[in-house]
Amino acid sequence: MQQGLMLLIQLVLEFAPVVAELVQNRNKSSLGLSKYEPIEAIPEILKVLNPANKKSGDVEDFEQARIFQQQLVADNHQTRLRIAAQERETSLKLPEVNKIFDSWPLRLYPSQILDHTNYGHTPLKIFIAPPQVDFDQFGARRDENIFKFELMLAEGLRDFLNKHYSLNSQVRPTELLAGAWDSKRFHSESSIKALFGMLKTEPSLILECENDGDYLNFRIAYWGLWQDNYYYKTIARLPYREILEESAKRRALEWKKIRDELVALGEKLEEVNQLGKDNVINLETLEKVEKWHEKGIDISKLSLQYQVNRQDYEKLCQVLITYHCLVAGWVADIYHLVDRGVPPLLPELLPSLLSDAFDLQSLGVIASGYKQVYQALENERCYWIPELALELAQSLCHLSDAYGGKLRAWANEQLNYSLSTWLQLRQISPNNSPNPLQEMQSAVSVKDEEYVKKLREYFVAVGDTQSIADVDEILNRIANLKHQVTVQHILLRHTLTGHSEKVTSVAISPDSETLVSGCADKTIKVWNLKTGKLIRTLTEDLGKISSVAISPDGHYFAVGICQHPKSNVKVWNLNSDKLLHTLLGHQKPVNCIAISPDGQILASGSNKIKIWNLHKGDRISTLWHSFAVNTAAISPDGTILASGSSDNKIRLWNPHTGEPLRTLNGHSGEVKSVIISPDGEILFSASADKTIKIWHLTTGKVLHTLTGHLEEVRSLAVSPDGEILFSGSVDKTIKIWHLQTGELLQTITEHSGAVNSIAISHDGQFLASASSDKTIKIWQIN
Fold first, then answer.
1. What is the pLDDT of residues 229-255, one digit of tens each?
2. Reduced DSSP (H G I as helix, E B as strand, rest coil) percent helix, strand, coil of the chain, to 5
3. CA–CA separation, 8 vs 326, rounded Å?
C-alpha cells in the first residue's frame, strides 16, 4: 500500500474518535455559553425537535426544523466567534513577556496572526514545521546543499490548498502561513503549548516533521474553535534515508540502461562513465550488494552509502508534500464539517493525490472516519446527516469509477446510512422493508425534492436502473404535491368604497361575519364581510385612524388614533356602537394596537407601548421604546408581546410584567408589521427593507427570509392552519407564500395604491385588504 495512504488511514483511525469525543463534549458544554447570550431555551427546543419525542403519524415540518437546526449551529458559531473575539482582545493586551517567547516557535507575533480584518468565515490556519535534515551525511555536494527543502514543501502544499481550500473560499477557507515557523527555536511540546495558550481562539493545524536518526517523525497538532485543549500526536515515522537511497538506486538502474545502449552503439565505457557522475558509484555499490546477497552475505550488517543528489531530495520532498496534503485536506474537511456542516471534499481528491491503486479496506477506514464524525453530530444536526452521507456516497462513487468499481460497497454503505437516517427522522423504521425507496413514498414532501434529485444522480452514476425507476416515482409524487399547493385560488368577491382617503387598517370578527375598517378620513366603518354592505359609520370626535382590532369574543373593537393632539385609543361595543373607553396617556401618535387572545389586555404603541385592561380601561404598565413603535402582536398564550419599531428592531416583552425578553436584529429598514403563528411558535415580520423574515419566537433565530416585494412590506396575515402567509406592500401587490417551501404561490395586483393592511377570517375563507386607493377588497380563498 502506498505510504501516503497508510499515513492518512493512521490519522483517520486515531483522529476521528477524538473529533467525535470533542463534538460530544461540546454539546454537553454548550450551556456554558449562556453568559454570553440567553440560549437557555435551546435544550427544550432540541427536545421538541428530537424525533424520539414525536408521535408516529404526526405531520412534521422537517424542513423548518432542519433550517432551525442550521440557524442554531450558525448562531452557536457566531457566539463562539464573539467569545473568541473577547479572548483575542485579552491576548492582545497581555504583555508579550520573555518567558512566553522562550518557547514561541513563530516568526510572527500573536497580534499579526489575530488580525481578522479581511475574513468572512474563520479559516483553518496551517503552519509547517519543516524537518532539519543533514544532507551532508549522504555525500551531497555543497551546491546541492543549497537546495531549499522548506520552500519546495511549502509550495507544494500551497498549490493544493489554493486549488481546493483557498483562503478566499466561502466554503472551506484555510490560511497557510508558510515560513512562519522558526525552526531554530523549535521546542516540540513546549512550542505547541505556547501556541495554544496565545492562539486558542484560532483554529490551527501544525504539520511538524522532526529528524530522528534515519527517520522523520511526522506529527500533527490541532485545535478548533470549540476545543478546550489541543490534539498533538506522532502519526507516522517516515524512513527518509530509505526513500533517498531507493531514489538513488532507481536512478542507477535507469543509468545502467542508458549506459548499455551507448556502449552498444560503440561508445567507450570510460567516456560514458564520465557522464554518469554519482550514478556510476551507486551502480557499482548496487551490483556489489546483489553479488554479496547471492553469496548469502547479510548485507544489513554493512554500512553502505549511496550518493544522493537534488533529484532524490525532490523525491523525498514529493512524498512529504503528499503527506502534508492528505493530512491538511482531511483535517480541513473535519473542521469545516463540524464548524459549519460543509460536506467533505478529500474523497474526490484522492485519485489526484495517490498515484497507486489502494485496497477496499483502506478506503473503508477513510469513509468510516467521516461516518464516525457524522454520528457524533447526529444529536445536534440530525436533519443534516442524510445529505452529508449522500454527498460522501457520491464522492466514493466517482472514486469507484477510477478503481474498477471495487469501492462501490463503501459508497453503498454511505447511501444506506443516508436513507436510514432520512427514514428515522420521519419515524419510519428502515428495517420494515428491504427497499427503503418504497418507504419514502409515504413520507416525502415538496421540501425533499433536492435530496431526491441527488439520490437519482447517484443511482444514474452507478447504473442502478431499478432504483432510478423508484426515485422517478418519488419525484412524480413530489410534482403532484407541488401541484396541489399551487392550484389554490383567491377570488375577488367585493370592492368596498365609501372612504374618502387612504384606508389604513382592517380587522375581521371571530365569527367571520363583520369587517371593521379605519381610515385617514377620520371615520370607522363597519361592514358585512360576506355581502360587502355597509352597516354603520362612526365619526365621533375622531382623528386619523391608524389601526383597528376586534376582541376574541367579538364583543369589542378598539381603534388607535394617530392625529396629535387627539392621539388616544377608543374602545367600542361592536354590536351597540356604545363608546366604552377613551384611553389617554400617549404623547405621540398611536400607530398600532393589539388585543390579547384571552381578551383581557390591550396594547397600544406610539413612542412607548402602554398595556391596558380592556374591560376596565385601566393602564397596567408602560414599556419603553427609544423609537416609534409601528406594530405589535401578542402570542396565543398571552405570554409574549412582540413590537416592531422604526429603529429596525423587534422587541419581545412579557406583557403582564413589562419585562423585556429579547431584541431581534435582522432587518435593515423599519419594521412595519409583526404577527405570530396560530401555534405560537413562529414570528413573522415585514419591513421597509422589502423583506419578510420568519423567526423562531422562543429563541429569536431567523428561520427564513422571503424576498419578492419591490417596496416596503406593510402588513402580514397567516392562515389559521399556519401553512400560508399573505403580505401587503407599498408596491400595490398582495403576495401569497407557502411557508413549508418558502415558495411564492401567487401575486395579486388588483389595488392601484399601496396595500396598507390585510386580515384573514378565522375560518380561513376570506381575506380583506385595505389600500391607499381608498378601497377595501374582500377576497374568497378556495
1. 888 888 778 888 888 888 888 999 998
2. 40, 25, 35
3. 6
